[in-house]
Amino acid sequence: MGLKRYAATRMVTMFGVLMITLLITIALVGSNMDTILKQGIGFQVRTEITENPAIAESFSSVNEFESFIQSQIDQRIKVLGLDEPWYSPQRIGLTMYKILLLDFGRATFLTSDAGSSDVKDIILEKLPRTILLFTTATIIISIMGIFLGALSSSKVGSLTDRVTSSFAIISSSFPVWWVGMLMIFLFAFTWQIFPARATPDIPSSDPRYIGALLYHMTLPLITIVMIGFGSWAYLVRNFMVGIMQEDFIMAKKTIGIKKNKIIYTHALKNAAPPIVTILALSLSGSLGGAIITEAVFDWPGMGRLYFEAITVMDLPVIIGSTYILTVFFLVSIFIADILYGYFDPRVRTGQ
Amino acid sequence: MSSISPQEIKQEFLKSKMGIAGITILAILVATSIIAIITIPIETFQEWNNPGSWISYPKVAIPIWVNFIMTEKIPEHKILETPNIQTNSRGEISLTTHQFGLNFDYNDFPSDFIYEFSSEYSGSPLLKMSVLRPDGIKLELLSTSLPFSNSKTIHSERIFSTDGSIKKNLSLQSELFAFTLDRLSAEDIVFSKTQINESLKGNYIFSIDLYAVNSEAQILESKLIIGGKAFGIMGTDELRRDLAIGLLWGTPLALFIGLVVAIASVVMGLLYGIYAGFKGKKTDETMMRFNDVIYALPALPFLIILSVTISNSIFVLVGFLMIFGWVGIAKVSRSMTLQIKTRGYVDAANMMGQKDSKIILKHIVPQLLPYAFASIAISVPAAITTEAGLSFLGLGDPSFPTWGQILRDANIFGAAARGLWWWIVPPGVMIAITGLAFVFIGNALDAIVNPKLKR
C-alpha cells in the first residue's frame, strides 16, 4: 500500500469515527434536547402573546385562549420539524449536517465573555486560551523530556537515569488536578505568589489583558509541566535504550565512534519516528485541554467550558464542544498514523 | 513475550526492588481495606452524606497528632460517653449522678461544651449540672426541671454551653474571678484561671445530678461533648465528617474500581485481540476497524456525558470505564497473536486437526499471560484516577465516599484558601500511593516481559 492510499484509508476511517461519535452524542442527549427545545418554544409563544394584549382580548373564555396558544405552539413545533422524534432519520441527518458545517446553534444558558450566545463564538473565544496554556506546556514538556531522556539513556543506571526514571514513575501516578490543588494551596494562599483563579479579572478588551493572562497562566503551566515531563523522559529513554542495543549501533561502537556522538546523532535519529509521532499526538491532543485541570485552576478554556456546559446541561454547547474535541483528537491520531506510516513502511501493509 | 515460565517470572519479580515495594504497598492497602470493612460498620459510609449523623463531631478540626508537634496545644474535641454512674435513694428523693472526668491540657479554651441526654421519668425531676475544677472550685452551671409529665415519658435534650441560664448561673459566681465575666462565653469562664482569663490545665469533673421526688427517674443515654479544634487521626471537614472514615472507606472502593476495571478490560482486550489475530483476513479487518472507532472516541467527554445522562452509579461507571479500557490491549495482543500464529507448533496443532478454541487456549493465551498481568497492573492507576477525576467534577456516585469526592468537597468549601491541608493532602496521597503500588508492580513485570528495557 502506498502512503497516499494509506492516508486515504485512514482518512475515511477517521471520518467514519467522527460520524459515529456525533451519532452517539446526539443519541445520548437527544431526548433531553427535544424537551428543552419544546419548552423554549412554549415559553416564546406565551411571551409573544402576553406582549400583545389585543390577541388576549379577542378571546371570550380561558379554554379558548389556551387552545389557541396550544395550536400556535404545535404549529411552530411542526415548522421546526420537532413533531418528529429526535431519532427520526431526517432530524438526525439535519442535525449532523448542521454540526458538520460548524453550525451548533445557540447556547441555552452560557454566553461568551463578549456576551454572544452563539456556540461557535463561545468556542472560538475559549479555544485560543486552551491552546495557549496546553500547547505551550506540551512543547516545554517534550523539549525537557527529549533532553532528559537522551541524557539518562546515555548513562543507563547512573544517578541521573535513576532519578529521572523514578521521578517519571512517581509523577505518573499523581493526578494532575490534585497536584494543581496543592500548588494553589502552597503558592496562592500559603505564599501568595500567584493568583488562585487563573481567570484574569480585567476585561479582555483591556490592553493589559495579555500580560494578566500570562501571569495567571504561570501556576497551571508549572503544574502541568512538572507532572508531564517525567513520563516523556522515561519514554524517550526507553526508545533510546532499545535502539542502543541494535546491531548497527553495536557496530559503530566497535569501530570506536564516541558514545556521545552515537547517542545524539545516530540513536536519536533512529528514535525520531516514535518520538515525532508521540509529539504530534500530544500537541494536537493538547488543543482539547484537560477538563479537570482547567476546572481546578479555573482556566477559561475549552475544558472549563465543557464542564460548565455539563453542570447546567447546556446541550448545544455540549454537542459543539464534544465535536470540536473529537475533531482535534481524530486529527492528532490521523497525523500520528500518517507519520508512523511514513517512517515505518511496515505499518502500511497492515502487518 | 517469548516463553518465560511462571516460576522464572516469580523469581525475577522477587529480585526486583520495585516489584517488592509495589507488592508491599498493595498488601498494606489490602489490609487497610479489610480493616475498614471489618471494623467500621457499613452504615457509616451510607451515612456519609447525611449531616445529621455527624452532629456531635467538630467542624474542620485539625488531626490530633498535630499536637505532638506543636508547642501550643490545640484543644481536642472530646466526646465522653462513659460517665461514672451513682444512684442514691433517701426517703422520697432519689438521685442519679453521672460524672464525666476530663483531663484538660491545652493552651486554648474549648470552642463549646454540650451535654446530650435522654431520660425516662414521670413527674418533673430536677436536673443539676456542675463542674469541679482542678483548683478545687465547684461551679454551678445549671439547675432546671424537666418538662412535667403524668405518665412515664422519655425526654431527650441537648444542653448547650450557650444556654442563657448557664451564663446567668456563672455570673452569680463572678466573685470567684478577678476579672469581669460580662463578655465571656461559658466555656471561657469554666476553663479559665481565676486571676487572668487563660486556660486552666488539669482534671475537671462534670457532674449531672437528676433528683426525682416520689417517682423514678433514669438517665438512659448521656454524652458530654467538649468542643475542640482537633479531632481524630485525620481531622474532620466542613460538614463535621470524620475524614479518617472517608479515607479508610475509600481504599476498598478504589481497589475495587481499579482492579475490576483493569482485569475486565485486559481480559476483554486479550480475547478480542487473540480472536481477531487468530482468525485473520476479513474477521481481523472488521474487528480492527471497530477497535479503531472505540480507540478514537474521546474518553473523558464521553464518560462525562454517559454519567450525566445514563447513571452515576459506581457499578455502571465501572462498566463505562471498561468500554474505553480494552482497546489498546486488543491491539497489542492481536499483533502478538499474529507472531505466535506463524510458529511451527501452532501449525502442527492445526494440521493435527485441533479445534481453534483449544489452540488459542493451549498455545496462544499462556504466551500472552505475562503481558496480560503487566497490563492489568499498569491499567489500574488510570482507572482509579479517572474515577477520582469524575468524582471531582461532581459526577461520582454520591452514596459512596471515594477519595475524589472528598477532594471535590474540599474544593467546593475552599479548603485551599482556608489552609485546611488535612482535607486536601491525604486523599490525593492515597490516590497516588495506590497508583504507585500498581505502577511499581507493572513496571517490574514489564521489565521481565520485555527484557530489552532492563539494561
TrEMBL record, chain B:
PROSITE patterns according to UniProt: ABC_TM1 (PS50928)
Keywords for the protein's UniProt record, in alphabetical order: Membrane, Transmembrane, Transmembrane helix, Transport
Membrane topology, record value: Multi-pass membrane protein
GO biological process, one term: transmembrane transport
Domain ABC transmembrane type-1, residue spans: 251-442
InterPro entries: MetI-like, MetI-like_sf
Subcellular location: Cell membrane; Membrane
Main location: membrane
Membrane spanning stretches: 20-42, 247-274, 294-327, 368-393, 420-445
A GO cellular component annotation in the UniProt record: plasma membrane
Superkingdom of this protein's organism: Archaea
One Pfam match: BPD_transp_1
Family to which this protein belongs: Belongs to the binding-protein-dependent transport system permease family.
Protein name in the entry: ABC transporter permease
Organism: Marine Group I thaumarchaeote
